């Protein structure tokens, strides 16, 4: 990794005594911020400690000296240092006089997001969560450069506080070829987001600190127009976002639903439940809890539903080990457990079966077995939008030779005998809809997936069926209701895979009975 911080330019605008003391400090490259409050000792803050720069309290002369070295403060009480990423924020008294300053060190870290590069190349919208100072802005700055320079997309940054690309009309070198739009007033951020779409035809929009309902609505508008969105928000986890009424729309929104008596009994729940309202704005959510350690919700729609149902979301933990190697592990964690106490309770897939089980648990089980769909008399853009929102393993093709299925409007398909003849000769199924509406498109796309032979993904359909049955039993009975469950009798080599699956969920399982009725009994964790 290459780190550029321009620390000298920040030290040059500080009082001479403070500047010289920091210059001599051995760990100055780890400096996060400098705090100067009227009547208090100046502090240099690091990730793990605070260093008092001087025993002398800050006075009015020190504050005024610093203000003269700085540019004009914006309405959000922020300013910057020209041609750097540093940010200076002020604390004012009732009369509007500055009585405190926070100097935030801005760093460009090239190479710090290689651990999630595969997610960027997919093209899904990504939301990054984390507490202040954990590295969200540094991450999206590097994401902007990667997308613009290395992946070759048209990227626009909405830089409300000039924190991503620096306090200058010329963007900092760390954003590469990405373009930057400045915002005159923080309250106009949502308008600039829409303006970027309408005026500049971006493929990717990057926005730091989505914090208001209007910005959340603007983000949904951008996503619905087929533009990849990379954003950040304050919050430690996906659960925080679900509870946040202002920002919950980013992950689909939450609503109360009243079930009928029969449906409530069938689900084993009360009549009033929480459900997700619509498709999430962001397909992927990344939680940054500490430097170079990222927790990823790769299927936000599925994980939000699981959290609302009281189940544990399925996650990826990505981090860099002591040998500077990237490690990816799949895990589950309890919503009520803290991150620090949860490390010993992660349930990892065994290496020899990880790929097999991961594809089974993934909602799109046949992700490596795409369905090629040929469209006849339908909007390519509208259909692609539905496919992207539902995260279906469907690729739209413009040639019949590659197609596994054909989708078209009923009347136009009926009046095209040549198409039907080709489909018949090639044994390609034809699906039709009456009108090109979103509900009909969603319904027919689901039918295509359901009718497609998913069992081709696995050579042995018996293993697939048994593990599918076992997965449903674990999710709906063992984990949800904390009850023991017995599976259907299976032969020995299938029970071997069932034991692997039990280990994935960190559950205790034993084989009981005699052949040919030998079967697995799975115990909840409370009884294991």
UniProtKB/TrEMBL annotation:
Residues folding into a coiled coil are none
**Keyword check for Magnesium:** no
Indicate yes or no for the key word Ribonucleoprotein. Answer: no
Q: Which InterPro entries match?
A: AAA+_ATPase, P-loop_NTPase, PTPase_dom, R3H_AAA, R3H_dom, R3H_dom_sf, Spore_III_AA_AAA+_ATPase
Official protein name in the record: R3H domain-containing protein
The alphabetical list of record keywords is: ATP-binding, Chloroplast, Nucleotide-binding, Plastid
Q: Which residues does the UniProt record annotate as the domain R3H?
A: 461-526
Q: Which PROSITE patterns match?
A: R3H (PS51061)
Checking Pfam families in the record gives: PTPase (PF25516), R3H (PF01424), Spore_III_AA (PF19568)
Q: Which SUPFAM superfamilies match?
A: P-loop containing nucleoside triphosphate hydrolases, R3H domain
Check the UniProt entry and state the signal peptide residues, or none.
Answer: none
Say which species the protein is native to: Galdieria partita
Molecular function terms in GO for this entry? ATP binding; nucleic acid binding
Q: Which gene encodes it?
A: ycf45
